[in-house]
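Researcher: Next entry in the queue.
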Amino acid sequence: MKRINFVFLLLALAVVLSGCATLTVHSKVSKDGVIENYKIIINTSSYVYGLLAEGAKKEGYNSLRESLMSEIPEEMRDKVTYDEVWSGDQVSIIIEVKDYVPRSDDRVKVVMDNGLLTYEDLSFMSGEGKTTSNEINKAILSSFSLHYYLEMPGKIVDSNANVVRDNKAEWHLTGANAFNARIYAKSEVPKIPGFEAVSSVLGLMVAGFLLRRSK
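Model: Structure for this entry, 215 residues:
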């Protein structure tokens, strides 16, 4: 997931130079801490796409796709899909990862501790979390937006999201705020369905057996 930050910085440059772009992320986490699905959708103009592709070629890649896929570990490449959908002057770049287990050096992190699951995505943080102070830059960047949708395995008990509903959270950010976004949520870890009922039945069976033995 290191490339996400690279894409984000390129988008920042493209937006400043030319116009608008929207980045949407959908992430779903299992109770085991595995990210079942992580989808990034970049919606922008063909001109901004050209700037991104040009930046990739300056880095030595043949295409934007090759650039974005280059740092994905080889063992994960069968879990990653890349697609581009064109509609007139608009293009959507779609990158999707299945069954993703974050590594220690990734900017996406999932940590389980004391029955709680903490999710953090630092892919969209730049400049050590400092906000853009220049009003002109803020006006230029106002045409960029980030929409992030997260689904956790259990009820979310703590988050910095704009909207939280049970086990789902949403972030809707624009301008400089989008370029300094820390995505954070903590949820309960659901127990195995019916586990309490099974435990109770087993307890009754053991108690009954002991009573019979004592007679």
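Model: Residues 128-133, 194-199 have pLDDT under 50 and may be disordered.
Researcher: Noted, moving on.
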